[in-house]
Every structure is written in structure tokens, then in C-alpha cells.
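Q: Is it fine to ask for two folds in a single conversation?
A: Yes, each is treated on its own. Send the first.
Q: Here.
A: Result:
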Amino acid sequence: MVTVKNASGASVVGKEAAEAGEALSRMSDRSVPVTVGVEEEYLLTDPVTRQVSPEAEKVVALAAAELGERVTTEFTRYQVEVRTDPHTSLARLGEQLRSTRASVSRAAARLGLAVISSGTPVLGQQTPPPVTPGDRYGRSVVTYGALNHEQTVCAAHVHVGVPDEATAVQLSNHLRPWLPALIAMTANSPYWEGQDTGYVSWRSTTWGRWPAAGPPPYFTSHGHFRKLVDTLVTSGTVMDRGSLYWDIRPSHHVPTLEVRIADALPTVTDTVLLAGVIKGLAATAFTAIHRSQPAPEVGPEILRAACWRAAHDGLAGDTIDPHTGRLEPATVFHERLVDTASAALDTADAASLQAAQKHVLIHGNGADRQRAAYRRQGHLPDVVDHLIRSMTVVDRGSDRQNASDAP
């Protein structure tokens, strides 16, 4: 009889335990690299008016000639979604992201449009926004009403390969204390309806209004996760597994854990930093799970407060460390996040991560750069122009941006 422990330290026995032990052994073996894949959501923009444009279906149809099923529509007709293949190398991931962004931008240009990667539109949108045709989107409009009016927001999702759902649940427990640091690092949505919100990540702030959103619970077992999900679905609180909008969730259709916390990021360098940090944190967590080390059980109140502060202040000022509940400089927490992740990566990935980290330390997160673009002349359309340039900027050396795009 094989005995292993779940994330809470409770013992489980029998066939499930044997399978879990074998799966965790594979994931903790350094010869089996952690895979990451990325989904990015973009906004279509008229480069003359700088307003969002509802031509996503046309752009997707053109881009599909190069990208196939890796490009698709999203909830509103302003949005385009792309996905990468799973990668074990951050450099290869960055290469595919660059070529994918270039393909979508070329498709948009054929229609006289441009593409930006921002958590929110800068100059506003039609309310309610035009919704992409489809049964599921139609159900959402009926079920959730005005919540859908704020769906013109874009995110970057990182999928970590896992052997099974039970492992994904444990991995979620280990990653959730890092959510505030990830928000501060990836914030890229300071504007909404043509106004500065006072937040660096307005997208993550408003997203918490949905019934199953924000930081996920601490799951005491795989059974706890399954029971909670069943209750949410059967009660009609969520339409289906796809409507679980937690910042971290086991995917319902592929064998991954999906980390959904980040705003859509302005450059490929920013997305590589996000993917690299999550890859390193996941590798560290797999080892801890294999050794039956329980995840820190951070209380939901502290974690929610820390996430709110991170979405408000970003990398400036102090932040709440959910591991301790104490205030500390946000940059210190951020550097600990990157150092922890880097330690679990191979030499090549660690180098990619450190280069991307240097870029953020010099230029700030995406929200800092958006505000810097506005401050130059006090003109919001300049922010859109900055985002258009950032979309396909090719970074060289230590991933420097073009001088015109640096804060």
C-alpha cells in the first residue's frame, strides 16, 4: 500500500495515492522539464481615432492563414486571442510570441487597424460592448447582465503542464501566496473610459466582481476542489467549469494549471518574464509537493487585501507580504519573487528571466510606461501610440525597448 500526503498534509491511501506518487515523482525529476504555454488577449484599435475597433472576426480570419487554430475571437468583437504551443525553453517561447504578434499585427494592418496589448482600452468603449456571436456568450449576457459590460479587458494566461488535476490543485495552493507580487509586476491597465483610475491594474480590480473570481481558495484536497466546483455549477453560480474565473485554476480541457492573474502585457519581454517566473515557482512547488511539504495556508482576507494593494500601488511604495502579513517595499517582494523563480531554472532560462527583470526594473511595469507616455504631452492618444509600438518592438541585448517607447 502506497501512502502519500495531500497539500494539507493529510494522508491518502490506495490506487489514487499510488498514481499521485508516481506523477509527482515524474514532475520533481529535473530531467523532466516544466512546460509553459501562453494565451494573450489583444485589443483592435483604429490608429487614427485610437478607439477600439469591433473587427475581431475579420482579423482572426486573416491571421488564421498563418496561425491556424492558435488565433481566435474572444467575448467582445474588440478582442483577439492567441495561444502558443507548450515550451520548455523561455527563448523559444519568446520567439513564438514575437512571430505570433507580428502575424496578428499584419492581419490587422490589411484592414487599416492596429493591435495593442493592454489590460483595458485607454479611451473607452461602447457600452454595452458588441459581443461576439455564440451560444455561450449569449448565455453569459443573460445570466450576468451588466457584469459583461466590463468584459473588454485583456489578460495574459500562463499554462503549466501537470500530470493530473490532483497535482494541479496542490500546485494552486503553493502558487497563490505569490499572487500580489505577480499583480504588481504585470500591472498594465491604469486607464478606463479615458480616465486614470488611480490603480495600476484596473482589470484585476474589477474582475473580482464576478461570483467565482479573484484568489482561489486553499484546497484541503482534490475532493474539496471537486465538491466546491460541483456546488458552484449545480447552483447556477457559474455556467460551467469555464466560468471559474479564479486567478489560478486547473484547466477544464487541457492537462495544465492556468495562472490568469496578469494583465495583457505590452511587450514580449514582459510576457517572457511572467512565464519564466511562473515556470520557476512551479518547479519549486513540484519539488515541495513531492516531499509532502504543505503549502503556506494564507488566509483569504490577507491575500485579498494584499492583491488589492498590489493592484493599486504596483511596484511603488509598500506592499503586504501575504506570507507574513507585514508591510515591506514592493520592490523587495518583487526581487524575492524573481530570485525564488530563477533558482529553479536552468542556466538559459535564468538568463532570459534576469534580462527581462532588468527591463522592468529600468522602465517599470506596463502601467508605469503607459502613464509615462501620457505625461510627455498630457495626451491620452499618445498612450495608444506607445502601446501600438510596444506590440511588436524587437528587444536586443538586455531586452532594451526602442528609445521612443522607454519611460
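Q: Second one now.
A: Result:
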Amino acid sequence: MKPQTLFRYCAAALVMLASAAASAQVTRAERADVHGLTDASAREVATLIAQPGFATAVTGTLADRPERGVALSAVMARFDPGARTQAARTLAAQDRQLRQRKGLPADGADLLQVRAYVPAGRRLADLPASQLWVAVLPRGDDRHWTTLTAYDAQGRSHVLDARIAPTFPVLIVDIDTRRAVQEGMAVVNAGLQARGLQSPDRIRAAADGTASLDLTRLDRIRLADDQEPWALGGAEVFAVVSGLQIGAAEPEMATVTLPWLDHDNTDYTPGQPLVIWGNYRFDAANVQFFEDDGDTNYQALLIALTDGVKAALGVFVPEYAVVADIAGAILKAMPTSWFANDTDYLDSLYLLRRGENYPDRMGAANNAKVTLSAVTLTE
């Protein structure tokens, strides 16, 4: 190996290690802050349960679909329209801090929400509102959760089993991850575009003047049952599509939200565009699925997909084999903590081809089973 080439590889490796270390340190701090804020909010809501009118506002709003959750700000607006109480001001301030910790714009919608776990055959109204406990999700990898904490109206803490669901309704204060993912993916895609790693759609023009756009459509997907704790609720899944740019030795990447994919071990038939072709050299791309459980900082995710991926790839010749290498670089660039509770890696589909159909294609991790169809849109 030439000294110049060796130097470039070593430099790239050092940049990647430094970036990963810094990102991991920031991620750990952000996750601690996010958990601390949600825990403090759960305590605040528990004390409010004893206040006349508050519990009724919560249970009344959640009565029809308790598992979906409602914004805490909406509940507080009904309970305290003028935001005169200290609790209203505290919760609003904690919501603003959450947006900052998650790398989201300051002027977006509130993220704190309250939802309920209600056992089968029971109703939220079965338990007197003043006796409801308010739980908060634990730190760390959800696969290793053993207990979680719930607070009562007197501020006392109670321990619940994370794997065995309670026999009574429980309120849960957490982050509206669906809203956060939608906003976060917009932040990431805008950042990829600004850094030249996401190209505008390439529409093909035919000799007769018609224009067309080739897509790969996600017709069906099923994720294996991973036995997540009862308190987590529905998943929020997003995909990272990657490949090589046309005309440049650069990665091409885009993120796609899958907001309807709530549960494992369930078939979903969205008919949603997954890969927009024309931007990928060799007409080949990878798709990787991740699940966001609430703690992700999207600015850190953007750094991982830009600086981290480029550092992991190093200097390369834009050959076909590099397409799959980009998917590997994405996983290498992710801080290890993102494979715990905040962003779980689900599966990878390598080297999908433009114009091809994939019935019942299994991912590399044997977790995602998908059916993909080639579609051409014309004017």
C-alpha cells in the first residue's frame, strides 16, 4: 500500500473514532436529560391527579383510545386555561427543554404526552381517577428492563414489573414519538440535502415529451415479535435508504417515515413509496429499518449520517460493491447507545434493484419480511 493511501485510511479512521466518541458522549448526556425531564413530568402529573378536574380531564380525553395518548399541553389547557398554576408553567418549560435535547426546532408542537395502559376487559373508568398511578419509562435497553416506576397522587413511588402487565389501568407520561419522528426526519433530510448527500428527484423525459419517475413501493411488511415491555406502546419506525450518487464519489441517503407501523408480529399493507429511483448509481440501493423509542437526538443522527458515514467509508472508488458498504458504514457510524432503547436497529435490505419486484423478501437480520413492487409514475 502506498504511503499516501495508508495515511488517508489512518486519517479517516481517526476521524471516525473521534466522531463516534464525541457523539456517544453527547448521546449519553442527552438521553439522561430526556429521561430526567420525562420523569419530572410524570411526578408533576401524579400530583395533579389529586386536583379537582384534572383527572377527569385526562380520563375523559383518553376514554375512547387510551393507548394513543394526548398532548399534556392540551390537557393542561382544559384544566388551567390561563396557565396560572406553577404546574402549567413547569410542564411547558420541560416541553421546551425536550425539543432542545432532541435536536428539534424550538417552535414546533409540544412533545410531552399522557397515555394509558388498560388491561383487556377493563376500562380506564374502572379505577377512581384519584387512585391512578402515573408511570415513566426506564432508562436503558428495553430488552433488559425488569421494573419501572409509577407515582401516586401523594408523590409516593411504586415498582411495577416491566414484563408482566398490571391488572389495573396505569397512566404513562412519555414523548409523542410519532410527532418527534416526523419532525426529526424532516430535519435529517434537510441536513442531508444541505450537505450534498441527498439529490433532487431525477425525472426521466421520453422522446415524446412525457416524464416518468420510477419507485419501489412497500406493499407489505411484517416485523418479528421482539416481546417489548407492555409500557412501551406502539413503535415508531423509520427507514434509511442509501446508495451511491450519480456523477460523484459520495453516498446518497434519504430517510422515510413509517408512521403506521405500530406493532411487531403484525402484517401492514401501506402501498407507500420506499425508494425513489434516479438518484442511485448502478440502480441499486439499500434500505435499513430503525425504531425510535423516544430518546433520539436528530441533530446527532444527522451528524452520524453525514460525518460518521463519510469517515467510515474513507476514500473510495464508486464501484458497485461500495453500495452495500454504505449500509455497513451507516451501522458503524451509529453510536452504540442507539441500538439500545432510543433507536433500535431492526433490519437491512441490501442491493435492491430498480425495476425489480421482491415478494416476501427477508431482511439480513431475519426480522423484517417485506413485499416490494416496482412502479413507474407518468405524467
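Q: Anything structural to flag on that second result?
A: Two points. The longest helix spans residues 3-48. The CA atoms of residues 98 and 120 lie 32 Å apart.
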